[in-house]
Amino acid sequence: KNSDQLSKLPESQITIGAVCLAPFQETLYRAEIEDITEENVNVMFIDYGNNEIVSRNDLFSVTNDLLALPKLAFKCCLQGIESVSNDESSACARFKELTQNEQGLNAQLVSLSFDDSGQLSNAEIELFDGEISIKDELIKSGYAVVKTQENSVYDCSQEFETESTFPVKYINGGTPNSFMCQLVSSEKELETLMEELKAQTD
Prior knowledge:
Elements: E1 19-24, E2 27-36, E3 40-45, E4 51-55, H1 64-67, E5 73-78, E6 81-83, H2 88-98, E7 105-114, E8 120-129, E9 132-133, H3 134-140, E10 144-146, E11 154-155, E12 166-170, E13 179-183, H4 187-201
Parallel strand pairs: 5-8
Antiparallel strand pairs: 1-2, 2-3, 3-4, 5-13, 6-10, 7-8, 7-11, 7-12, 8-9, 12-13
């Protein structure tokens, strides 16, 4: 990495929610700080959805042009279910097993939630592996139950075809109630982003 082109993230900017550049397997990626300890931070790579604990000294400032680009991974939950509380780990394991399709999955958007600043905080979706509904499989297996629908989300049914689906890549980790997805259609944007990152950091 060319250190002349990179600026260490100032200590005053190491705050929860701050976006920076952080390393994963010796390559820098855009990341958001989620937790802070005396020596390390837990970051979530906003274009991939995975987390990593890195040293505070390995964080770099992100340029405005990179900061302006939308996040390419987004937080999701499966629509209308919750894990059985006394079997959370088994539900997560079954969920991971059902979503490990290298060809990707299809998602159907149900509703969106936004934070106080108007940023998308969660997408409620249904996931399908071919004709198989991941939600139905979890319920059928006894790992999840139907939950009472809440009204604190934005109903997308008026703006999206309710029967339409779009291909996504499921990001490893997470639970049926909180996991990360990446749109397959974002592959070109991701390639362009990584080229720009490489140009700035190599």
